[in-house]
Design goal:
Blueprint lengths: L15 H30 L16 H29 L1 H17 L1 H7 L1 H15 L1 H13 L5 H8 L2 H18 L5 H21 L12 H8 L15 H5 L2 H30 L5 H28 L5 H25 L3 H15 L6 H9 L3 H26 L6 H25 L35
Helix pairs in contact: 1-3, 1-5, 1-6, 1-8, 1-9, 2-3, 2-5, 2-6, 2-17, 3-5, 3-6, 3-9, 4-5, 6-7, 6-17, 7-13, 8-13, 12-13, 12-15, 12-16, 12-17, 12-18, 13-15, 14-15, 14-18, 16-17
Length: about 475
């Protein structure tokens, strides 16, 4: 740790943790973007859509496209638990970099794998799924180590915005490349090159503990480690899996993750169909209406996270309960209103409101996971990624069960009521069992210890002045 970081750090002097936050966001976005490249490039692969005859054309049946998604989900499911163990043992510098490079390889190799056949292509998608499993584990570990206890909601809100950010950037760049002389293969090469640069930079700039970084000053280190125990400052050690998985607070966090993520994935996936088939909007209007809420959510997620951290007139538990209620009970009420008030303009407003309310989750169950599970929060959040993978299979199954006629408002209403009830129940249970205090399994046999006293430097006199 340098007592006074280099002057050329500029705005990040005594704020290096924010630089790490942004770098992590871009790396997370890269992995997610690599996974999303197929969703757009498949449109460019079809006959008569590529630039001349210079690029090969491919067509996929509905069943083959399903297999492509299943391969991705299977890789992510299988990668979740191994990455949890590897992150705990070796830290995020090496393991997240390795996951990123695996994603880069699978992305760059995709055009060649398609030339070899459908099954080699599926294997590349499977590898992309494995690398994607590292995203949520790295989020939990990064927050546990680099975020101060007063900034958990902000860090969570920023880092979990990688998904809508990846969608926005991937669609924008892929659309331009697809229509250019470069052709659809360069979509994969471009994403691969960007990912390679980002993860090499990650390996060079990231350290597994702030105290090891020459860019972190004594002032900043004190802020990061304030009120943390010795156990929280270390990434090594065994994980009490049974105690974590049977703790009621953790189970409630996972329940809320399941209902909120499943309903949000359903909303993002099937909103265009609902708008077009039930309310009769044109395809152009449907695309515009469907794209606005996720874009707005990127900014609002960060704003709500910052607000959650800055509020001082409520306790941490009260803040978590309020924000989680907004992200569960709020959408439940909005879904119910869509069913009761059959008006296409009102429905659009409610769908936008639902997306906005989902943005509050960073100050709700996510924050509960990091504050209550402390040094083991990466395991708890990694399992939220596992839940997210499960919902990729669950959402289509629920849609197929409730909606047989896509133009039937009544069938869509039954689906909305089911979502509403699940959100309401999980939100009410959260209020009863949430906790902002370290749970018993975070204590070692010697008990929780205070942060080790650190040698004061001349930088320390600025601690009170720097309200970061």
């Amino acid at each position: 740790m340098g007592e006074s970081p280099p002057a050329y750090l500029g705005v990040f002097r005594d704020r290096y943790r924010y630089f790490i936050l942004l770098l992590a966001l871009f790396c997370l976005t890269s992995v997610a973007s690599n996974m999303l490249t197929f969703n757009f490039s498949v449109l460019c692969m079809k006959p008569n859509t590529t630039n001349g005859d210079r690029f090969p054309t491919y067509e996929f049946t509905t069943l083959e496209e399903s297999y492509v998604m299943y391969a991705l989900g299977a890789g992510s499911l299988l990668g979740t638990f191994p990455f949890t163990i590897l992150f705990t043992k070796y830290g995020a510098r090496y393991i997240f970099a390795a996951a990123g490079l695996l994603s880069v390889f699978a992305t760059v190799a995709t055009p060649f794998s398609l030339h070899l056949g459908f099954y080699p292509f599926l294997f590349m998608r499977f590898l992309q799924g494995i690398s994607y499993a590292a995203d949520f584990t790295s989020i939990g570990l990064l927050i546990s180590i680099w975020a101060s206890l007063k900034q958990h909601a902000f860090y969570l809100s920023v880092l979990t915005s990688y998904s809508p950010l990846a969608t926005t950037l991937t669609d924008a760049f892929s659309g331009y490349i697809c229509d250019s002389f470069l052709g659809w293969p360069f979509i994969y090469y471009f994403h691969g090159i960007a990912g390679l640069l980002l993860f090499v930079y990650w390996f060079l700039m990231y350290t597994d503990t702030p105290s090891e970084s020459k860019w972190v000053s004594a002032v900043e280190l004190e802020k990061i480690e304030r009120d943390k125990s010795e156990e929280e400052l270390s990434i090594k050690g065994s994980i009490p899996y049974f105690k974590i998985c049977t703790n009621k607070v953790v189970l409630v966090v996972w329940l809320n993750a399941l209902t909120e993520i499943a309903s949000s994935i359903f909303l993002l996936t099937y909103t265009p169909i609902y708008i077009n088939m039930v309310h009769g909007y044109s395809l152009h209007a449907t695309g515009l209406i469907s794209s606005v809420p996720p874009s707005v959510a990127i900014v609002l997620r960060m704003v709500f996270g910052l607000v959650s951290d800055r509020i001082t007139f409520w306790s941490e538990r009260t803040k978590m309960n309020v924000f989680n209620t907004l992200s569960t009970v709020g959408p439940a009420a909005a879904y119910t209103a869509v069913v009761l008030i059959e008006n296409k303009y009102f429905d659009i407003v409610m769908l936008v409101v639902i997306n906005i309310l989902y943005s509050c989750s960073g100050g709700g169950f996510y924050k509960c996971a990091t504050l209550s599970c402390r040094q083991y929060s990466h395991f708890v959040i990694a399992n939220i990624q596992f839940i997210k993978c499960v919902t990729l299979f669950l959402a289509p199954a629920m849609y197929g069960f409730f909606v047989r006629d896509e133009s039937s408002a009544e069938q869509w209403g039954n689906m909305f009521i089911a979502i509403s009830v699940s959100l309401l129940i999980s939100g009410m249970i959260f209020v009863l069992f949430s906790s902002a205090d370290p749970l018993p399994f975070t204590e070692t046999s010697t008990g929780r210890k205070e942060t080790r006293p650190r040698r004061l430097t001349t930088d320390m006199i600025t601690v009170e002045r720097l309200k970061l």
